[in-house]
Amino acid sequence: MTAVKNSLDVALRWLCIVLFVALVLVVVWQVFSRQVVQSPATWTTSVAQYLFVWLALFGSAWVFSEKEHIAVDFLTRLVRINGTRGMEIAVNVVILAFAVLILVWGGLRGVDLTWSQKVSGLPVNIGTMYLALPISGLVMTFYSIFHIVEAFHGRGLPSADEEIREAV
User: Fold this and answer.
1) Using CA atoms, how far apart are residues 98 and 89, in angstroms rounded to an integer?
2) Cβ pair 13, 58 in contact under 8 A
3) How far apart are CA 41 and CA 54, in angstroms?
4) What's CA 105's distance to the chain center, in Å?
5) Helix (H/G/I), strand (E/B), else coil: 102
6) What is the pTM of this model?
7) Rounded to whole angstroms, how far apart are CA atoms 162 and 84?
8) Mind listing the pLDDT tens digit for each residue in 101-153?
9) DSSP letter assigned to residue 93
10) Where are the alpha helices (DSSP H) in the chain?
11) Taking a C-beta distance cutoff of 8 angstroms, is the pair 145, 104 a contact?
12) Residues 112, 127 contacting (CB under 8 angstroms)
C-alpha cells in the first residue's frame, strides 16, 4: 500500500506541476494577446478557470497525502477523544466520508448533469471539466484509508510529546 501511495504522490506532484505551468502559460497568453496584440483570446478565461480548479483539487489531495494541510484543532479539543491515534482515525473517517459523499458521489452527479453542456469557445463539454471532482475524491479516499490504516497500526501522527522532544 505504501508503494501505491508513493507512486500516486509522484504522479500528483507532476500533474500539479504540469497544471501550474499550463495555467501560467494560458494567463501570460491572455495578457499578451489583450495588451500587446490588441486582440484578446476568448478561450483563455475559461481554460484558466478550469486549470485553476483542477490544480486546487489535485493539489489539495497531494497536500493531504503529505499531512501538510490546514489543521483546525478546535474540534479535537472539544470532543476530547483519548489519544492521538483515536483522533487521527476519527478525523480521517470524517475526511473519508466527505471525499466519498461530496467529491465522488456529488462529483459524479455533477458530471452527469453537465455532460451535454458545451463550454463556449472550447471543444469540450462542462462534464469533462467536472471530472476533477470525482477523480480527486477517489484519490483522497485512498489517502484517507491509507492514513486510517497507518494510525490503526500506530504509524500515524506522532504524539504532541514526541513532537516537542523532536523539536528540542
Assistant:
1) 14
2) no
3) 21
4) 16
5) helix
6) 0.81
7) 11
8) 999 999 999 999 999 998 877 888 899 889 999 999 999 999 999 999 998 88
9) H
10) 2-35, 43-65, 74-79, 84-98, 107-114, 126-130, 132-152, 160-167
11) no
12) yes
